[in-house]
Specification:
Layout: E1 3-9, E2 12-18, E3 25-28, E4 34-38, E5 43-48, E6 53-58, E7 71-76, E8 83-88, E9 93-97, E10 106-110, E11 117-122, E12 129-134, E13 138-143, E14 149-154, E15 160-165, E16 172-177, E17 181-186, E18 195-198, E19 204-209, E20 216-221, E21 225-230, E22 237-243, E23 248-253, E24 260-265, E25 272-276, E26 285-287, E27 294-301, E28 304-312, E29 316-321, H1 328-331, E30 336-339, E31 345-350, H2 351-354, E32 371-372, E33 395-400, H3 404-407, H4 415-425, H5 433-446, H6 450-463, H7 492-503, H8 514-534, H9 601-620, H10 624-631, H11 644-660, H12 664-674, H13 676-679, H14 684-700, H15 704-712, H16 717-720, E34 768-770, E35 777-779, H17 780-789
Antiparallel strand pairs: 1-2, 2-29, 3-4, 4-5, 5-6, 7-8, 8-9, 9-10, 11-12, 12-13, 13-14, 15-16, 16-17, 17-18, 19-20, 20-21, 21-22, 23-24, 24-25, 25-26, 27-28, 28-29, 30-31, 31-33, 32-33, 34-35
């Protein structure tokens, strides 16, 4: 065992010692002179000297140590310096008496729990009372003068993670559970708890009563939150909430500091943080000595806020001096910018930059104006640090709200309402793919989300084939065949005349110059695009400039009027692939088909194409026969759809684009609608991150039904499993306490109705609602009608029930 000394502070040192194994918990004696460290492979008592830890007693004695020595928790009685209790991983509760003269200090063994005991706790004022909480969901109270438990408290819930006696109420204790609930019990009543509420979204690993303020209970859970509850009020009320970076394993209030508490994490973070609950995002102090996860913390003396003891998985025991702690707030950036979910903008700047501006003076009680954080004066014991930290940064927070009048001008400006509207009106399943895309595109267009609407239409076009043409309402005025002036882009005689003048002047093909070549190539591309569009293909970017086929100096009045027949195009003869020569390209005369009989519509169109091809064959590098064959196609060149793998890279890039912009709603909605078409190309962890971000936003706006639908339709297995967590509800008969059978409303043992309506006094076989305060309830409609007229419980128990 090696000791390490760091610094000196008022006679005490920051010091540590190496342990024989990883520590699971630590506890301190009443006078602070000894500390016990417990773990799976260690159970020792150390004396705390001025310069080092000195091993005093090793409680793991004997050649063959049993599982009773494998400890998950340890407690030291605050009324007897020789009395210890440990919680074993095999379900045993063991007490130890250090005053025994023999090497074996074990005194009592209680083996009543069926699974691991997570916590043991002594009563502060009662010498012989010990409380335990186990993984089997029960809590047991032991009288050390007897060999068995006095009473058992069944939480009717999942495993118990922590139990703590109240320092102010003699008979009260709190228990935290795996399902996120916290229960308040009375030692005199073991049949049911006095109060129960949901404290965290996930397991609650630790709880601790405030040593001074009656009713303040701090809880920490897997949701990375530390919450302070007021248990003295009629209903548990959340007073403070601290956001950490990892699951909270231990919570301990700091002595003599009303708003300070210490926490350690269960994973990732090895630091012990001391928080001021009034500043929930930056720790007040941090101890970074441990190299692995900290498993146990304890303040050395009940009235000394400067000394903290800790054990960790790195097999070390530390005594921390508060002067040596790091202050993260002193190193934090005083400038910040944040956007609120309702469109508010908040920014923080140094006090010197904003305090001198008369336009930024704070008005009390008005959130729309800037307000200030005032730095507290140094604490008395930090008087020596006043000179050192006199330059601590103080920031001014400015909050600006959006004007309500502007929100009604443009739907885009109110992003929160647009988010809620899209979430509620989007259709993600239950219809064909094309209908889903059309519906979602229409909803996005109504809310001025034009880019999102276009995305849905493109997805329909890619994956729904020929059925994916956009609705006519979304096309430009006049249709896709309109030119700049609204006239038809397929003017027959004008086209023919231009083809005649460019392609057949002086009876032969001319060598095109640069100016003519560029114009012809552009117009040929437009012609091919128009024919392809008529055949149901996607072509070009839809610019109307490409649809202008007439010269700028040519007017349509110079040519006879041309109109398409009702069938658009007359039936053509069968096209011969790969003709041998150009004989079929000869024209009927110098005046073109426009001067022939009135039935020359088909001939006019062919002549128009002839003119275009003749003037641009050399520029394009293709033969006239190939050009005519291309333009004369009246069927799609490809199939209606392509394999989904062809579009997968572009679709994945689109999903990442929206995700990087923060629009996870569009990303997740598209991912659900596409299903296996695109989910296979996205990493599973990335998908899970997208889903969790979207679900968090839905829960912020209380869109619970939409969140449930997203979980149900999720393409990620980890997300789909969220609806299966904590879904079991154990029901017991209120008379014989036996678990109910398959019927759920009738006890198989005593044949009594388990749920009787407090209003009509009949058995409840359907939906049942009950008050968590008095446990009385009944039919949903009956209780709603009763409590809407009177707040008192219908049974006459006197409790003021609340229906929400």
């Amino acid at each position: 065992m090696a000791a390490r000394v760091v610094q000196t502070f008022s006679g005490w040192r920051t010091m540590s010692c190496e342990l024989d194994g990883a520590a699971s918990a630590v506890a301190v004696s009443r006078d602070g002179s000894q500390v016990v460290v417990a773990g799976r492979n260690i159970l020792k008592v150390f004396a705390i000297e001025e310069e080092a830890f000195v091993e005093k007693v090793n409680l793991r004695v004997g050649r063959r140590t049993s599982v009773n020595y494998s400890c998950s928790d340890v407690a030291w009685h605050q009324l007897d310096d020789n009395l210890l209790a440990t919680a074993a991983t095999n379900g045993a509760v063991v007490t130890w008496n250090l005053s025994r003269s023999s090497r074996n200090k074990q005194e009592l063994l209680f083996a009543e729990h069926k699974r691991t005991v997570n916590k043991v706790c002594f009563h502060q004022a009662e010498l012989h009372t010990l409380l335990s909480g186990s993984q089997d969901g029960s809590m047991k109270c032991f009288d050390l003068r007897r060999k068995d438990s006095v009473c058992t408290f069944n939480g009717q819930s999942e495993s118990v993670r922590d139990v703590q006696f109240s320092p102010r109420d003699y008979f009260a204790f709190a228990a935290s559970f795996e399902n996120g609930n916290v229960q308040l019990w009375d030692l005199r009543r073991s049949d049911r708890c006095e109060r129960m509420f949901t404290a965290h979204n996930g397991p609650v690993f630790s709880c601790d009563w405030h040593p001074e303020d009656r009713g303040w209970l701090a809880t920490g859970g897997r949701d990375k939150m530390v919450k302070v509850w007021d248990m003295a009020s009629a209903r548990p009320r959340e007073l403070f909430c601290v956001q950490t970076i990892a699951s909270v394993a231990r919570v301990k209030w700091r002595p003599e500091r009303r708003y300070h508490l210490a926490t350690c994490s269960m994973m990732v973070d090895h630091t012990i943080n001391v928080w001021d609950v009034r500043r929930p995002f930056i720790p007040f102090a941090a101890f970074e000595e441990h190299r692995d996860v900290t498993t146990g913390i304890a303040w050395r003396l009940p009235h000394d806020p400067h000394l903290l003891l800790s054990g960790a998985k790195d097999c070390t025991l530390f005594q921390h001096i508060f002067k040596d702690a790091k202050r993260p707030a002193d190193r934090a950036n005083p400038e910040a910018l944040c956007f609120g979910p309702r469109g508010d903008v908040a920014f923080a700047a140094k006090e010197g930059l904003s305090a001198n501006d008369p336009a930024r003076r704070a008005l009390p009680g008005d959130r729309r104006n800037p307000f200030f954080f005032i730095r507290k004066a140094p604490e008395p014991y930090d008087a020596s640090l006043t000179q050192q930290h006199s330059g601590s940064v103080c920031s001014v927070l400015n909050v600006f709200q959006r004007c309500d009048a502007k929100e009604k001008l443009n739907p885009l400006e109110n992003e929160s309402e647009s988010f809620v509207e899209l979430a509620q009106r989007y259709c993600l399943a239950g219809r064909p793919f094309a209908e889903l895309c059309d519906h979602n595109a229409r909803i996005a267009m109504e809310l001025c989300r034009h880019q999102v609407a276009q995305t849905w239409l493109i997805l329909k076009l890619l994956y729904a084939g020929g059925d994916a043409s956009p609705s006519p309402a979304l096309l430009p005025n006049g249709g896709i065949f309109c030119g700049k002036d609204g006239s038809s882009g397929l003017g027959g005689d004008g086209m023919s005349e231009r083809g005649k003048s460019e392609g057949h002047g002086d009876g032969g093909l001319e060598e095109p110059n640069e100016e003519t070549e560029g114009s012809d190539v552009e117009n040929l591309t437009a012609s091919v695009g128009l024919y392809a569009a008529a055949a149901g293909l996607y072509s070009g970017n839809g610019e109307e400039e490409r649809l202008e086929l007439l010269d700028q100096d040519t007017t349509t009045s110079d040519f006879p009027e041309f109109s398409l027949p009702p069938e658009a195009f007359a039936l053509r003869h069968e096209i011969v692939d790969g003709p041998a020569g150009l004989e079929h390209l000869q024209t009927n005369g110098p005046d073109g088909p426009g001067s022939g009989d009135e039935d020359g519509t088909d001939e006019g169109m062919r002549s128009a194409c002839q003119g275009k091809v003749g003037g641009s064959t050399a520029g394009l590098g293709i033969t006239a026969a190939e050009s005519v064959s291309l333009i004369s196609v009246s069927q799609p060149l490809f199939g209606q759809t392509l394999p989904p793998e062809v579009f997968a890279p572009a679709v994945i890039a689109m999903l990442e684009f929206y995700a990087e912009r923060g629009d996870v709603q569009s990303t997740v909605s598209t991912l659900i609608v596409l299903g296996e078409k695109a989910s296979g190309g996205v990493d599973t962890l990335v998908q899970e991150h997208w889903y969790l971000s979207y679900l968090e936003l839905l829960q912020r706006f209380r869109l619970w039904d939409v969140a449930t639908q997203v979980i149900r339709l999720s393409t990620c297995a980890a997300i789909s499993a969220l609806n299966h967590d904590s879904t079991s509800l154990n029901l017991n008969c209120s008379s014989c306490r036996r678990a109910l059978g398959a019927k759920g409303w009738l006890c198989d043992r005593c044949r009594r109705c388990a749920s009787v309506c407090a209003v009509c006094h009949h058995a409840v076989k359907g939906l049942f609602v009950w008050c968590q305060g008095c446990s009385h309830g009944g039919h949903l409609k009956h209780m709603h009608d009763w409590l809407s007229a009177s707040p008192h419980c219908p049974t006459g128990c006197g409790h003021l029930c609340e229906y929400t």
